[in-house]
Amino acid sequence: MQVAVIGAGYVGLVTAAGLASLGHQVALAEADASRLLALESGEVPIYENGLVELVKWGRDAGRLTYHASNPEAVKGAELVLLCLPTPAGVDGRADLSYVRGVIDELALALDPKARFVIKSTVPPGTAVELNKRLANLGSDAAVISHPEFLREGSAVHDFLHPDRIVIGAHDEADVKAVASLYDSLATEMIATDPTSAEMVKYASNSYLAARLTFANTLANLCEAVGADIVDVLDGVGLDHRIGPHFLKPGPGYGGSCFPKDTLALIGVAEDAGYDFRLLKAVIDADDEQRRRVADKVKLAAGGGLRGRKVAVWGVAFKAGTDDVRESPASRIARLLVSDGADVVAYDPEGRDPDLRHVDSALEAVEGADVLLVATEWPEFSRVDLTEVARRMRGYRVVDARNLLDPRLVRKAGLDYLGLGRPKA
Ligand code: UDX
After folding, report:
1. Which domain covers residue 106, as residue numbers?
2. Tens digits of per-residue pLDDT, 174-203?
3. How many domains does the chain have?
4. What's the gap in Å between 55 CA and the centre of ligand 1?
5. Domain boundary among 159, 191, 223
6. Is 0.90 surpassed by the pTM of this model?
7. I want to staple 107 with a disulfide (CB 3.0 to 4.6 A). Which of 80, 139, 142, 210 is the partner?
8. Could you tell which of 120, 146, 151 is best to mutate to test the pocket of ligand 1, judged by most ligand atoms within 8 Å of the CB?
């Protein structure tokens, strides 16, 4: 099928290259001239496992073309996938100006029978609103809701092996058109109305955020009562109604989706006259988690951070990505800086321009009073701990990901402080 993808950001680029690999002819439009230039010169401006190869394959096969102009990209396309940013506005509500702008621009440019498909995360009711907008502009193109669930770091894998495909449309032919994009993938398909499809995305992200915030707050309670969160969650996760996934305590959630989508859903609820107190409590507890980790580092440094050197391993919001947006790791590092610490950060991929970075985990611990493990990069668990102990000035390790083996840390002569774990 011939499709257009509008927006070569994270979702758009993976979706475009993924659809090309499934045999479709994909025209990808990007408004940012420098990003387009980078793409045309063979660069892939996102760190994502397998994406370079997938994009190259699409380009070499002639299945993936790049365009500066949206109207040019949609020529001949049966489906026009909108992969545009929907950032949090001032009040936390999703800002739909990019989506509306492109709908206005393309309303009358689509081929007859072509459809808009919204991949961006948009509040429930958006497709319905955009359908009315199109009708007012004199277009009868349908707007189909088709949320994406890609995780950063494993987006290509997630695209090719989705847990489910969700399609929200009123017309069965619209559902079939989108479903046919994935004929070659064996996966669960949910067809529903557009508003419910939009809600699936917010509900999934908010549930996951709540679930891991539950694990984080439970870890705090385990510390208070002297239980070990790792064993507790092993026991909890074995209940088949709960399952073991997404239960690892950490410094809080980050990235481009959870912080934005939880806030946006509260806005959606408020607009609908519903007070979503549970989700508000999740956001509060998540904010508190970062401060708790920073306080733990402060305590490990002897109660104050002025004049103390803190090595921070990891600034990316999670392992497997260079993304530092809303990263709890970099937020905590900045809190430490504002508390007076001399912070030296190392991350294999991520860079926070406001922090001092060095090129290796061992370089970071040179002369450090405290080591904070803030992102769960596997390479951190392979660092020679005896060498870490030799290079540090102090001896305390705060492991905000429960990544290191406490026995090995202690064996190296260091003091281990995890999350929700017994002290010794
Ligand atoms: C998320 C959703 O999973 C994805 O479906 C959606 O499309 C975009 O948002 P992503 O932001 O890439 O994906 O990250 P994810 O792997 O879900 O992790 C989110 C946050 O939760 C990270 O900060 C991560 O460190 C944290 N997390 C996750 C934990 O602290 N513990 C866990 O057990 C799992």
Report:
1. 2-191
2. 999 999 999 999 899 999 999 999 999 999
3. 2
4. 24
5. 191
6. yes
7. 139
8. 151
